[in-house]
Structures are given as C-alpha cells and as structure tokens.
Write a structure and sequence with these properties.
Blueprint: E1 3-13, H1 17-28, E2 33-36, E3 49-52, H2 54-60, E4 70-73, E5 76-80, E6 86-91, E7 95-98, H3 99-112, E8 116-118, E9 121-129, E10 132-140, E11 149-160, E12 186-196, H4 199-209, E13 216-220, E14 227-233, E15 239-247, H5 254-265, E16 269-281, E17 290-291, E18 294-296, H6 312-326, H7 335-364, H8 368-376, H9 382-389, H10 398-410, H11 412-420, H12 422-432, H13 441-455
Helix pairs in contact: 1-3, 1-6, 2-6, 6-7, 7-12, 10-11, 12-13
The structure holds flavin-adenine dinucleotide.
Length: about 475
C-alpha cells in the first residue's frame, strides 16, 4: 500500500480547544503545522457547555467568547447541603461557554493561519530515533467507503493534545514517566442542554429550592465525596442545562447515570438538544510535560483543574505558553525551548493545580454526607468556594478565613481533618515555584521528590 509522506515543523494531535488553539498559535508564529483529528473536524473536542473563568482567556491571549459562544455570564448559584433549601448563595466567577462554538472558532482561525488539517485520521504508530519522536504513521478514513489513506508525518515537534486518550503519550511511555490516571484520578462527567417539557414543572422545581430562572442549583456529595449535580433553568423557561460529575471509583459511567436518574424523577426535563459525556483527568499535571521533540498539553497533560475537572481554560493557557516558548527557536522541538513551556506552566498554574489536588484527594475519601455538612456549616465558606471556581489560590485574609473558622466550630472533627491538609495545600504551591528552569533529569527527579513530599502525592519521575 502506498504511504504518503509529508514534513511539517509541528504536528498537533487532537483538534479540541487545546489542540486547535496550539495549532493556530504556532502557525501564526510562522511554523508549518499539521493538525490531526480522529473525528471530523467540526465534531472535534467538547460538544457541550463548559464553565470557564474569563481571566483564563486573557491569560491565553484568546479573545473572550461573545455571541452564541457565550451562554451565560457570572450567574448566581445556590449550593445545597444536606437539606432541601439553599445553604450558600454566590455569584459564579465563570462564564458558560458553548465549546462547540469556541472549538469551531479556534479551528477556523487555525485553518486561516495556514494549518493543514487531517480529519478522520488516527495515529497508528510512532517512530522514535535516539530518544526523539521523529514521525507518526496515520490512517485517514475517507468518505464513501473508499480505501483509507496511509500517511507518515515527519516533524521537529509533536504535540499530544488528544485529551484523556493520550494518543501519543501512551505510545511513548518509554520516553517519559506518565502513569495512567487511577480511578480516583478520573471523573466521569455528563452535560446536557435539554428542552423544558413542562414550564409548570420547571417552576415547581425552582420553587422547591427557592431560586429564580437563570440561577444554578448545585448539590455536591451525592454518590461520592467528589461529586456534583447542577441544574440551570434558562431565563424564559425554554431550556435547562444539566451537569453531573463524579469520581470514576464510583463507576466509569456514573456521571451519565446521575443525569439519567435526575431525568427520571424530574419529568419536566425534556429531550436533549445537545451535550455529551466523557472522562476528565483530575490529578495534578504530569511532573514531566516535555521530552525532545514532544510536548503534552491540555487533558493529555492532566492540566484540568483537580477540584472540579475544568480543563478548557488551562488548556488554552498551556497552548499559549508552549507557542511562546518555541516559535522563535530554530528547532521548535529543542528540549531547551520546550522546557521553557514546562517550567512556566508548572510555576504559574501547576502549583495551584497541585494544591487543589490535595483537596481532591481529601474529598474523594470523605463520606457524601460529610461533604454536604461542610457546605451546610460554612467550612467550605463562600470565599473559599469562589477561589476554587475561579481556579485561583484562596487569599489568606481574614475575610476568607473567619467564615470558615466559624463553620469549623460547628463541625470540629471534619474541620480538623480539612485543616490538617492546609499546610500541604500551601506547601504544594510553594514547591512548584521551584520547578527546574532548565532541562536536567537529575534536577527533575529531585524536584519531583521534593514536590511529592510537600504535597503528599507520589512522584511520577524517579531518579
Ligand atoms: C461532561 C463534561 C463537562 C465538563 N465541564 C467542564 C467545565 O465546565 N469547564 C471546563 O473548563 N472543563 C469542563 N470539562 C472538561 C473539558 O471538556 C476538557 O478539559 C477539555 O475539553 C479538554 O480539551 P482538550 O482539547 O485538551 O481535549 P479534548 O477536548 O478531549 O480534545 C481531544 C481531541 O483529540 C481527539 N483524539 C483523541 N484521540 C485521538 C487520536 N488517536 N488521533 C487523533 N485525534 C484524537 C479527540 O477526538 C478530540 O477531538 C468537562 C468535561 C466533560 C466530559
């Protein structure tokens, strides 16, 4: 069979929001870029509404969503604890973003910048020479039952942006130390936008929780300490948005199952208009993000925020940092250039994610009713919850701590367990500021051991 061979400066595998953004940024920086996607391009990536703090778009230098891309802006949210009534009412610091439209925009911009797309193309094999990935073999399915095309793409830089699939990472296990996420390090999530089948039913639901249309009703701690179920009836009562997420140790399909059960007891929720389900890595980012000629970004790098599995914003920021690091290098796959991305990401966002990973490990181990009690009694105080939603470290000021401490007095056993993790939360952040600035296996292993000690996790990279 004929194999078509082509050469690029960079090959990006995965055309979700992270891969499409990375491809466009590299092409605008002057590189000749290929974008490989196993689905049709217009079906790539997240097909649902994702909540994203707008500051992450600014950080990534990606224009903030507007028009149909932007579903909602900093809506109120009612958090429920053990009772039926609202325990905490906040204004969410995130925007609801239709990721189908965001992905379309980023892919359109990438193509306009000269990116060559290979859609319905799947990576079959990787060619490694002297420890460096030099080419990938692809099978590209064609329309109308014609024989698939065999392709070989050579490049100086390969980027795995294939999400939880880790299509290149898994084939390059010998080059890095990328353990597969465990069941406690993956979340099963589902998001649907549905018609409202009965407006009186929707009104009764809103009345039950004392909320208005547009407001999100959210309960944590359902079938596991790490779980959430949220319902937002849109103003006008035409549609309702549903979101579930739960750690995979409760079952790899537990997220969609939560929505199925919700719809069974709330028959006013009508047919799904769009949405989807999937797994999200919820561990801290991999200790190693690059090897010569190869970089991991987005969910493939475990860059989703561990407290709630939000990966869109961090993936865009990672794409920008990677492009900034390599576009002016004579060899975009040179380890020294790639390391600038790894070091900057770990120092700026990695430490925050590692801190919230401490919290993720704590909540995975809690009984659901204990998590609900933390909400009820205000130990998870509004300022702490808001910092987590905004994907930032909590400020250690009295305004944040006093409500949490007041709550802690009502729930001393749980609060003591939570506060026992506090030193690790802050030590993790500090440890990531010491991520090695330049490449070096010994320095990386020493840092990984140090960070693991500070945060209480197991290092990926060992000496
Ligand atoms: C139900 C649900 C709700 C979520 N809610 C939020 C939220 O509110 N906020 C938020 O920020 N995040 C949320 N997330 C997470 C978010 O969707 C992901 O973090 C984000 O989509 C990751 O983007 P990515 O581009 O890195 O990977 P993906 O979006 O997974 O894109 C990877 C692409 O690679 C392609 N691919 C895979 N394997 C191969 C292969 N072998 N060859 C070629 N191509 C391949 C895939 O087809 C896909 O198009 C949610 C996730 C789910 C499942």
């Amino acid at each position: 069979m004929t194999v078509h061979s082509q050469r690029f400066d960079a090959v990006v595998v995965g055309a979700g929001t992270t891969g499409a953004a990375a491809a466009g940024m590299l092409a605008r920086g002057g590189l000749d870029v290929a974008l490989v996607e196993r689905r049709r391009l217009e079906h790539a990536g997240a097909r649902w509404v994702n909540d994203v703090p707008p500051w992450l778009f600014d950080s990534a230098r990606v224009a903030r969503p507007s028009g149909a891309e932007k579903q909602c802006d900093r809506e109120p949210i009612a958090l429920l604890g053990n009772g039926a009534r609202t325990s905490v009412r906040l204004t969410r610091p995130m925007w609801g973003v239709d990721c189908r439209a965001l992905g379309d925009r980023l892919r359109r911009e990438a193509l306009a910048a000269g990116v060559t797309a290979f859609e319905r193309a799947e990576v079959e094999a990787c060619e490694v020479t002297a420890g460096r990935l030099v080419a990938v073999a692809l099978t590209e399915r064609t329309e109308h039952g014609l024989l698939p095309r065999q392709l070989r793409l050579e490049a100086r830089l390969f980027i795995d942006a294939s999400g939880v699939a880790g299509a290149l990472r898994r084939r390059l296990a010998a080059l890095g130390s990328w353990p597969e996420p465990t069941q406690d390090e993956l979340a099963s999530a589902a998001q649907q936008v549905c018609a409202v089948a009965s407006a009186p039913g929707a009104r009764a639901f809103l009345g039950r929780y004392g909320v208005r249309p547009g407001e999100v009703v959210s309960r944590t701690g359902l079938d596991s300490g790490y779980s959430t179920l949220a319902v937002r009836v849109e103003p006008g009562l035409g549609r309702v948005e549903l979101l579930s997420g739960i750690v995979c140790s409760a079952g790899r399909t537990a997220g969609p199952e939560m929505l199925r059960r919700l719809k069974a007891i709330e028959p006013w929720i009508g047919a799904m208009e769009y949405g989807g389900a999937g797994l999200i890595p919820i561990r801290r980012p991999y200790d190693r993000l690059v090897t010569p000629g190869f970089a991991l970004v987005g969910d493939a790098a475990c860059q989703a925020f561990p407290a709630h599995g939000s990966g869109v914003g961090a993936g865009l920021v990672a794409a920008r940092m990677l492009a900034d690091a390599v576009v002016h290098s004579p060899d975009p796959g040179r380890l020294e250039a790639l390391w600038r991305y790894a070091s900057r990401f770990q120092r700026e966002l990695g430490g925050v994610h590692a801190s919230y990973d401490v919290l993720r490990r704590f909540t995975v181990g809690l009984a659901p009713e204990d998590v609900r009690a933390l909400v009820d009694d205000g130990v998870l105080s509004p300022p702490l919850v808001l910092s987590g939603m905004d994907q930032r470290m909590p400020a250690l000021d009295l305004g944040e701590l006093v409500p949490a401490l007041r709550g802690a007095l009502r729930r001393p056993r749980l609060a003591a367990a939570l506060f026992a993790h506090a030193p690790r939360i802050f030590a993790a952040r500090a440890a990531y500021l010491a991520y090695p600035a330049t490449p070096g296996e010994g320095a990386l292993a020493a840092w990984a051991r140090f960070a693991a000690g500070a945060a209480g996790h197991t290092a990926d990279v060992r000496a």
